[in-house]
Every structure is written in structure tokens, then in C-alpha cells.
Automatic annotation (TrEMBL):
Transmembrane segments: none annotated. This is RNA-guided endonuclease InsQ/TnpB family protein. The keyword DNA-binding applies. Residues 318-384 form the Cas12f1-like TNB domain. Residues 1-43 form the Transposase putative helix-turn-helix domain. In the C-terminal section; belongs to the transposase 35 family. In the N-terminal section; belongs to the transposase 2 family. It comes from Nonomuraea mangrovi.
Length: 398
């Protein structure tokens, strides 16, 4: 099993400057390689591949020994492979008839990671194993950087990445052969319904609170963004204002991730099998399409209410939660089943009658056929559990 381990870096001021320069040089390499591909195809109809650009790296490094030549050859190859993957994804979307989205040049704020594809090649995890108290990671051109090593690393370190988030730097280790840590059987199964009022509702009536981290920080974010709007572009004061806004958003993101880990761990400990809806969150949070009224204007389409719901869904972090739950379930040896979400919230868990009118309010469910009443989210979670058990039974019979 492969897992990632993320640790906060504590670089010196010189090391932080070197990390920033390393990231900038890799960004320029990415953009130069993209321009190379665009120009070659536009002027000569030639498609440039990863192998062609990788072969030119030796000359690039020799011509710019104090710039590109300082960094790991392998990390630069990883950056070129990153561009190649972007083109592969572009051509795949073209073949499938989706919106293509041609690869773009990366601005300063859109390139935040440098990867070293092999431990020991331009990088070394735990580079000073004899140190009694501190763990270091060595990165070529940067040196031995202190790591806030708050948990043990399991498995074999395969790749090492350095990532910038605001004013912080992190090291991310991708490890192979990480042993599973199966939990003892809990003797229970559950279906879960994700919501906004409650983050998670289980089929046995349990609830996990939705902390609404973005709402909690909304006043501070609004004040920081108003302050940012008054700053002159390019000034040092604007830079500090941008950093404040970024720090607040980063805090919300960390809080949301922490909540997802705690909620997922509780579920994995309590249930052997968990069924959940296969939600397409990107589709659910799309902006409402405008409806022309035929007179040069537009009809009311509920866009304002929809935008508020979209914000609440994204603040709840359903996608983050489901990703964390999948990883924890795999590690613990639990079974996770995704079911079709169609009609789970409007179908009666007692008689099976399905109608929009069954859900009287957001929280109340009253069946129009049999009169069954229940909490709407609990009723939906029971339907999700039954669908999950049916899928498991069908898979076992196949």
C-alpha cells in the first residue's frame, strides 16, 4: 500500500530563500518547456515530447550553471514530466469530447511544488540519522533542512516533494510498501448521509457536527480582504496583506482537514462496512445557468440561493472527508461502498414509496403513502445502507 506523509519544514532564512529560488527556477523551466512545445507546433507542425526536452536539460544546465545548474537533474526531469502529463490529460479530454483546457503557463502563485522522484538522488530523507533530537531532509542546492517530525514514517520512501503554502514549507514523502493496520471487527455496518446541517448522519441515528470553519472565520477574512483591496499593487504592504489572507484560508483548510480525519477515524473504528453516496460534488456546486427572458434580460433562476448552498457544501468539505475516509478504511481493512445517490433522500425507508413530497423540510421526512416519519438524513442513510448491502451481496454472488 502507498501512503503519503507530510511534515512541516523549519528552514533557516537562507534555506527559505533557496527553497523559493528553487521553486521559481522550476516554474521558469516548466513555462519555457511549454513555450517550446507551443512554438514548435505553431511554426513547424512538430510535436515535442518529454524525451526531446529531457535530452536538452544537459545543455540548459551547462549554459546556466549558477541558475538551473544548481538544482537536481532528476527534479527538473520531474517538472518536465509534469508538463507531459498535462498534455496527456489535454489530449485525453479532446478524445472524450470534454472541454479540452489547454495547458497554461504557471504564474507565481500557481506553481508551489518541486518533486525529487527518488530518495537518494538529489535528496535524502533523514539525512543526519545520528542526530539525537532533530530529523533533517537534505535537498540539493538547499542543504540539510530541519523537519518537524511529529509521527513515524512507515514503508520505503519513494519520492520527496517540497511544497510552499503561504509562508510555510512542507516536505511530502510518498512511501511504498506501507503495512496495513487492520482493526478488530466491530460487528456493525452503517450507511452515511452527508449534509450541511450535519456533516455526517449515520443509519443508526448518529450525527457528526458540521463545524462550518469558513463561516467562523468569515469576519476576519472579510476584514483582511477589505484591507487588501486598498493596497497598491506591487507594494510591500500589499504583499503583507496577501499573506494575511492566505494565512486565514490556510488555517480554515487545516481545520477542515483535521475535522475530516477525526470524523473518518471514528466511523472506521465503529463499523466494518460503510456505505456512502457516490457524489459528484463538482456538478453539485456548479453555478446556476442564466435564463434569458427574450427581452435582453434574464429570468430569476435562484442563483443567489444556489451560490449560498454551494458555499455551504464546499465549506463542509465533503470531497476531503470522503478521500480521507477511503484512505483510513483501506488501512484499517474496512469495506467502503459507494452507491447511486438517486432518490435516496425522497424514498421511504419503511415502504419504499418515492416522491419529492415525502421530504417536507430539510430535516423532516413524512411518507405520503404510509405516514412513516423520521429525520430526513437518517431515512436517507438507511436507504444508502440497504443499497450498499445489496451491492455487496451482488458482488459476492458474481
Amino acid at each position: 500500500m502507498r501512503r503519503s506523509f507530510r511534515f512541516l519544514l523549519r528552514p533557516t532564512s537562507k534555506q527559505a530563500a533557496a527553497l523559493a529560488q528553487c521553486l521559481e527556477d522550476h516554474r521558469q523551466l516548466y513555462n519555457a518547456a511549454l513555450e517550446h512545445r507551443r512554438t514548435a507546433y505553431r511554426k513547424a507542425g512538430v510535436s515535442v515530447r518529454y524525451g526531446d526536452q529531457s535530452a536538452e536539460l544537459k545543455n540548459i544546465r551547462a549554459d546556466d550553471a549558477e541558475g538551473q545548474g544548481r538544482w537536481s537533474f532528476s527534479s527538473q526531469q520531474a517538472t518536465l514530466r509534469r508538463l507531459d502529463k498535462a498534455f496527456s490529460a489535454f489530449f485525453m479530454r479532446v478524445r472524450e469530447g470534454r472541454t479540452p483546457g489547454f495547458p497554461r503557463f504557471k504564474g507565481w502563485g500557481w506553481f508551489d511544488t518541486v518533486e525529487w522522484p527518488k530518495d537518494g538522488d538529489g535528496c535524502r530523507w533523514d539525512s543526519q540519522p545520528g542526530h539525537p533530537t532533530t530529523t533533517f531532509v537534505r535537498l540539493q542546492g538547499i542543504g540539510h533542512v530541519k523537519v518537524h517530525h511529529h509521527r513515524s514514517v512507515k514503508g520505503r520512501v519513494k519520492t520527496i516533494s517540497a511544497k510552499r503554502e503561504g509562508s510555510r514549507w512542507y516536505v511530502i514523502l510518498s512511501c511504498d510498501s506501507v503495512p496495513a493496520e487492520p482493526l478488530p471487527a466491530a460487528g456493525a455496518v452503517a450507511g452515511i448521509d452527508l449534509g450541511v446541517a450535519w456533516l455526517v448522519t449515520t443509519s443508526d441515528g448518529g450525527h457528526v457536527t458540521n463545524p462550518r470553519h469558513l463561516v467562523t472565520s468569515a469576519d476576519r477574512l472579510a476584514a483582511a480582504q477589505r484591507d487588501l483591496a486598498h493596497k497598491k499593487r506591487g507594494s510591500s504592504r500589499r504583499g503583507r496583506a496577501v499573506a494575511r489572507v492566505a494565512a486565514l484560508h490556510a488555517k480554515v483548510r487545516r481545520q477542515r482537514l483535521d475535522c475530516a480525519h477525526k470524523a473518518a477515524l471514528t466511523l472506521v473504528r465503529d463499523y466494518d462496512m460503510i456505505a456512502h453516496e457516490a457524489l459528484r460534488i463538482a456538478n453539485m456546486t456548479k453555478r446556476a445557468a442564466p435564463e434569458p427572458d427574450g427581452q435582453g434580460g434574464y429570468l430569476a433562476n435562484g442563483a443567489s440561493a444556489k451560490s449560498g448552498l454551494n458555499r455551504s457544501i464546499l465549506d463542509a468539505g465533503w470531497g476531503v472527508f470522503l478521500t480521507v475516509l477511503a484512505h483510513k478504511a483501506e488501512s484499517a481493512g474496512r469495506e467502503l461502498i459507494a452507491v447511486n445517490p438517486s432518490s435516496t433522500s425522497r424514498t421511504c425507508a419503511r415502504c419504499g414509496h418515492s416522491a419529492r413530497e415525502n421530504r417536507v423540510t430539510q430535516a423532516e421526512f413524512v411518507c405520503m403513502a404510509c405516514g412513516h416519519t423520521a429525520h430526513a438524513d437518517v431515512n436517507a442513510a438507511i436507504n444508502i445502507l440497504r443499497a450498499g448491502l445489496a451491492l455487496r451481496e451482488a458482488a459476492g454472488a458474481a
